[in-house]
Design a protein that fits this description.
Structural class: alpha/beta
Oligomer: single chain
Helix content: 25-40%
Shape: globular
GO molecular function, one term: cytidylyltransferase activity
Strand content: 25-35%
CATH class: Alpha Beta
Number of helices: 7
Largest sheet: 7 strands, mixed
Pfam families: IspD
CATH architecture: Alpha-Beta Complex
Protein name: 2-C-methyl-D-erythritol 4-phosphate cytidylyltransferase
Organism: Nocardioides oleivorans
InterPro entries: IspD/TarI (IPR034683), Nucleotide-diphossugar_trans (IPR029044)
CATH superfamily: Spore Coat Polysaccharide Biosynthesis Protein SpsA, Chain A
CATH topology: Spore Coat Polysaccharide Biosynthesis Protein SpsA, Chain A
């Protein structure tokens, strides 16, 4: 499946530059995108961050075009893009290249349908009315949006023709935009593809990643228990 990809950093403040394993969050996401095999890779940034990101991307050796503001959209319009668009959120830094590729190639089977990745909701969710906690909402009907999203090729083509830019700065708004423009399929994401929203969640993600790596390195006994002699 031919695809153009955009890494969405704009509108996210300084969090994409937070350190994860001694590298900015967004560079983890960008490297995964590059390794997933897309045809063209754009980075959408705020104007104030443009020069910094250009330097860091060049230093990282990743082939990507950094564009400020709506520049990424202008590039797609100028190129007359006909492929699907893979949108990756810089705040989901550990979504792997394999998962990004899985979402993209899965979407190829239904080219008229856009796609959104999600994680199951595990926290208890309550209703609140007039500052009073009410009943519990069934978590089975809830999902937490993560990354990536795929804008189906026909949906993208129509949007380019109308100059109706999808709101990639906010994945909740992007989900609503996609649903307003056609059918959307959901793809369950692995745990490490979760989104971070502050420094503490970055620290938690780093700890979870370290733990999962440690578990994978542990020898497994005949009984199947990690590390059992």
């Amino acid at each position: 499946m031919s695809a153009t990809a955009v890494l969405a950093m704009a509108g996210r403040g300084g969090l994409p530059f937070a350190s994860l394993h001694r590298a900015p969050l967004y560079l983890h996401a960008l490297r995964s995108l590059a390794a997933s095999g897309v045809d063209r890779l754009l980075v959408a940034v705020d104007a104030a961050d443009h020069d910094r990101v250009v330097r860091e991307v060049r230093h990282a050796g990743v082939a990507a075009e950094v564009r400020a503001g709506a520049g990424w959209w202008d590039e797609l319009r100028a190129a007359g893009t006909t492929s699907a668009l893979l949108v990756h959120d810089a705040l989901c830094p550990l979504a792997s290249a394999e998962f990004l590729r899985e979402v993209r190639t899965g979407a190829a089977a239904t080219p008229e349908v856009s796609a959104l990745a999600f994680r199951p909701v595990t926290d208890t969710v309550k209703t609140v009315v007039d500052a009073r906690i009410g009943g519990t909402i069934d978590r089975e009907g809830l999902a937490a949006l993560v990354s990536p999203a795929v804008v189906a090729a026909p949906v993208l083509a129509a949007a380019l023709e109308r100059d109706a830019r999808p709101p990639i700065d906010d994945f909740a708004r992007l989900a609503a935009w996609l649903r307003a423009h056609g059918e959307v399929g959901l793809v369950r994401a692995p745990s490490l593809a979760r989104r971070v929203d502050d420094a503490s969640s970055v620290n938690l993600l780093e700890c979870v990643d370290e733990l999962s790596r440690r578990v994978r390195r542990e020898p497994v006994s005949d009984a199947g228990a990690p590390g059992t002699p």
